[in-house]
Amino acid sequence: IDCHVHFREPGQVHKEQWLTGSCAAAFGGVTTVIDMPNTHPATESVEHFFAKKDIALRASYVDFGLYGLISDRSYRDIEAMHRAGVVGFKTYLSNSASSHIGMIGDGTLLESFEMLAELGARCVVHAENGAVIENRTARLHAAGRKDSRAHADSRPDVCAIEAVARTIIFAEWTGAPIHIAHEGTAAAIDLVVAAKDRGANVSVETCPQYLLLSVNDLVQGGGVMRCNPPLRDPANHARLWQALRSGDIDVIATDHAPHTPEEKRGASIWECQCGMLG
Questions:
Q1: Is 37 helix (H, G, I), strand (E, B) or coil?
Q2: Which residue stretches of 120-183 are H helix?
Q3: Phi, psi dihedral angles at 103 (to 5 degrees)
Q4: Is this prediction's pTM over 0.70?
Q5: Fewer CB in a 10 Å sphere around the end CB: N or C, the chain?
Q6: Beta-carbon contacts of residue 59 (< 8 Å; ≥ 6 apart)
Q7: Residue 149: partners with Cβ closer than 8 Å, 6 or more residues away
Q8: 57 near 116, Cβ under 8 Å?
Q9: Helix H segments across 101-156?
């Protein structure tokens, strides 16, 4: 089971289709995928959910589930999407540039978690502090930074640590079940473990790239290695492996997010799309 994939249909079939993505999953031994909502259009309404479900039913080689998007615009449809059959929800605490999804506001996030607590529905959280990222990115652009390392510098560890802490605070206050996506920062894992010890309903995933690769690979590999969150300092590896072996990390997912080769290349790291194949 891969609970975190970004198949590109509808809207970006030049990158991937349900047929091709699910076929690759099957060849890799994955028999169930759960698809994220940042397609075009986003899975942010019952109508869009059923449209994507119809595509997947006709084309998928493997079993699947679909997440619904929670944003400042779509949060009022949480209950309707839940009743329609989404397996869970996804929200972003930072902007998702490649999919044109804006970061959710704290007020909306708290209200959404209150709804999720009543429904017993889990929300996957992309936990990076969007305001810090935007400020750091602007500074790096102004300084003329175009190198691969600039991407990691625009999203330092503290972005993940703060966002995970904020998510947990809101979740504990409301009782909402949450799942921290694609975590590669050791200190953020420690926050999740502490929350679990307090009885919070929180789970966390990591991905192969955070266990096996580091910012050094980003520097060497360039745009091919650009993803969000970025590859971290290798000093994080030991804690991630320890947490995986102990069960403190609940899930390994891929965050499969394909782009064309041309979209992963550019003279500047900022021109290269974020996402890696899983």
A1: coil
A2: 130-142, 149-154, 157-174
A3: -70, 145
A4: yes
A5: N
A6: 9, 17, 18, 19, 22
A7: 215, 218, 219
A8: no
A9: 106-119, 130-142, 149-154
